[in-house]
Amino acid sequence: MFVALSAFLLLLPAVRAQCPDFAVYSTTPQGTPSTGPIGLPFMRPAPECRTFNSTAVEKVVANMTSRMMDADLARFFENAYTNTLDTTIKWFNENLTFVVTGDIPAEWLRDSCNQFKVYLPLLGQDQPLQELTRGVINLQGTQVLLNPFLHPVFKACRRSAAAATPARPSRPPENLTIVWTCGYELDSLLSFLQLSRLYFQYSNDKSIFTFNNGGWFTAVEAILQVIAEQATPTYDADGNVISFYNISGPNQQYMKNDGRGPPKANTGLIGTTYRPSDDVVYFPYNVPHQAMAVVELRGLAALLKSAGNLRPDIQSEALARASTVETAVMKWGTVLTKDWGEVFAYEVDGYGGAAMQDDPNVPSLVSIPYLGFMNATNPIYQNTRKMVLSTTGNPYYGFGPVIRGVSSPHIDEKHVWPMGLVTEVVTGTDDADILVKLEYLKNTTTGLGLMHESVNTHNVEDYTRPWFAWANSYFGETILQLAQTKPHLLFADGKAFDYASVLQS
Hints:
By secondary structure, the protein is an alpha+beta fold. It has helices at about 1-10, 20-25, 55-65, 70-80, 85, 110-115, 125-145, 185-205, 210-230, 285-305, 310-330, 370, 380-390, 420-425, 430-445, 470-485, 500-505; strands spanning about 90, 95-100, 150, 160, 180, 245-250, 285, 335, 340-345, 345-350, 355, 395-400, 405-410, 410-415, 455, 460-465.
């Protein structure tokens, strides 16, 4: 397996000499400015320099941008929505697709899933796009089979000799040099399940189940094994320390306790060692991860049932685990606060430890309705949202004249992540607040018309990552949701965007 994937990666083509390096191209304004007051530039490469062209995507762009009232928002949407296909497809054939995150030349399971979700409604009208997306899933399954604890691609990890125990030996790969970072993140594995579920929902294509001699099922089995292991508490009945994980990466903080991380009690929750931000957890049970797990484990069972009642054993295991985690979230994942009432903690350990904050990377607490775990009107969610979007309730809520929103220790407390504001929009119910957040987003691209990773609350020129494809796709997905659910915010005629009529035109 290692030899096969390594040989595949060596085939990644060099950027054509006549096309600009988008890592450089994205740092300065290009193209003709929009007619809006900000004058956001056209940041798409020329068609011949785009890494993939989709007829369906171009139909969506043409319809949306011709109807949107705000010329700057329309330009921002066009740049962001197309960014993954325009710039990040580094290699593909009829079976496999390698897609990078942007200015980091590696593929993350979570990022690549989120980069492609926005295109899924188009699959029925664009067969090449469907094949490209299927290739993403096939390669992700191959990556999971390498080792479900690791992120691909390319870089050495460190094996912590003291982390494994005789009772629970570790399961590292034999080759630790072909991954980019080495932190286990539960949401990455759940993202693979999510993209598989949504892909089948829109395409009805069963070929993902047969690729690589049924490797998709083997990958799912590996994911369920990781989940079972990570739901095991730190101590057994005799007080022995149990560890299923002993790899951490030089690009990230190493885990405490010789790589095992903080202790976790027997709760029914699923442990993780890194957050979606790639930072180590404060406490091992990340609550947004649990919410996503409930949704995607049930989604896995539904996927297999709808595809022909495949693998009833996996369906049963997934449904049982989802019920256990859901019960545990409501028991262990909430905290009764004096100022905010009952709220979700960001992380817990089952011993009473809790991290009271949020992070802008999805899954997050604000994103709980977007994940599908509960409705935005749920009282606990409402309390939580008020807390983590408050200057007094969330230590990582940054505010200033440039932008205000959730920041992250991944950068620092003074850099707000626009992705967090996108989450506020996609889960928002108040029109006026949504429009305020859109203004922040438009005005914090540093005149580049693409999403940044983070922006200084007091200095718009101080930002990180000019080319962050996940954030761009997420913004495009959110604008399209508004076009369907709140069209009056975008279109003068107030008529909802409809994929069927646009794609058939």
